[in-house]
Amino acid sequence: MKVVVLTGAGISAESGVPTFRDADGLWEGHHVEDVATPEAYDAQPFVVHRFYDARRKALAAVAPNPAHHALARLEEALGDDLLVVTQNIDDLHERAGSSRVLHMHGELLSAVCRACRSRSRWERDLADLPPCPRCGTPDLRPDVVWFGEIPYEMDRIYLALESADLFVSIGTSGAVYPAAGFVQQAAAYGARTLELNLQVSEVTTLFDETRHGRAGELVPAWVEELLGR
Ligand code: BJW
């Protein structure tokens, strides 16, 4: 059985990573839509750098939770038949042991040079304008996908959705496209669809089945069920 899992901020919430649109979703009074655009970066690069530098630093203090670990166990069982598509820029899936993960909105631990377009693994701050390791230009930005930019890996994601038997969405509000449209694409190609979320999302009605609760409980239970244990 081929399974595609889409994850959003809700899967990392119990690890202590704030979501975007829940009660604690504001950052220094900004909505994510105010800081996650190329226009915001051009207008106030230091505000945007501080937002991402703070989140990159905070990664060191968080750890994968039972939901991330359960998906890693599912990969052990299904191998290439599981693909995790994450909108999250943290590295908690990888730290739990998952390797088949596509970061469609980029990664906190990566920087992209606006001069030479090269992408480099990046663990330090960017606000102090360090030089690009490849070309030396001090014009690195977070390697993340902002509103109006094209998400990464779309070809591989659409191909996986076309052949999926099961599409599962975990902890995402369905407020942001194209990810919010994956349920309809997967269903159109014949997949069964399941949503696991703390509460009703903007696309809940599009799923064959929805379960409400915390990802740290729902995901391990669903994985055990799928593996017939
Ligand atoms: C729990 C839980 C627990 C909490 N357990 N659950 C009109 C129609 C269609 C599209 C558009 C449109 N107008 C504009 C667009 C396009 C635009 C868009 O979608 N805008 C919307 C505002 C409408 N999209 C884009 O611009 C995208 N690009 C694009 O479309 O390019 C064109 C193209 C596409 C495809 C092929 C070719 C071309 C780019 C979008 C980029 C989004 N970037 C961000 C920032 C990334 C970097 C960063 O992290 O800072 O991505 S914005 C932010 O939102 C981030 C997230 O990945 C994304 C989604 O958020 P998520 O993960 O859903 O979090 P929340 O907070 O919203 O929800 C958390 C959920 O968890 C909630 O449901 C809780 O209930 C739940 N929860 N605790 C279980 N313990």
TrEMBL record:
Amino-acid positions noted as binding Zn(2+) in the UniProt annotation, renumbered to this chain: C113, C116, C132, C135
Subcellular location: Cytoplasm
Principal place of residence: cytoplasm
Residue runs in coiled coils: none
Reported cofactor(s): Zn(2+)
Residue sites binding substrate per the record: Y52, R55
EC primary class: transferase
InterPro entries reported in the protein's UniProt record: DHS-like_NAD/FAD-binding_dom, NAD-dep_sirtuin_deacylases, Sirtuin, Sirtuin_cat_small_dom_sf, Sirtuin_class_III, Ssirtuin_cat_dom
Catalytic activity: N(6)-succinyl-L-lysyl-[protein] + NAD(+) + H2O = 2''-O-succinyl-ADP-D-ribose + nicotinamide + L-lysyl-[protein]; N(6)-acetyl-L-lysyl-[protein] + NAD(+) + H2O = 2''-O-acetyl-ADP-D-ribose + nicotinamide + L-lysyl-[protein]
GO molecular function per UniProt: histone deacetylase activity, NAD-dependent; NAD+ binding; protein-malonyllysine demalonylase activity; protein-succinyllysine desuccinylase activity; zinc ion binding
Pfam families to which the protein is assigned, alphabetical: SIR2
Catalytic residues identified in the record: H105 (proton acceptor)
Cofactor comment text: Binds 1 zinc ion per subunit.
UniProt EC number: 2.3.1.286
SUPFAM superfamilies reported in the protein's UniProt record: DHS-like NAD/FAD-binding domain (SSF52467)
Gene3D superfamilies in the cross-refs: SIR2/SIRT2 'Small Domain (3.30.1600.10), TPP-binding domain (3.40.50.1220)
Family: Belongs to the sirtuin family. Class III subfamily.
Protein task: NAD-dependent lysine deacetylase and desuccinylase that specifically removes acetyl and succinyl groups on target proteins. Modulates the activities of several proteins which are inactive in their acylated form.
Protein name: NAD-dependent protein deacylase
Species, as recorded: Nocardioides marmotae
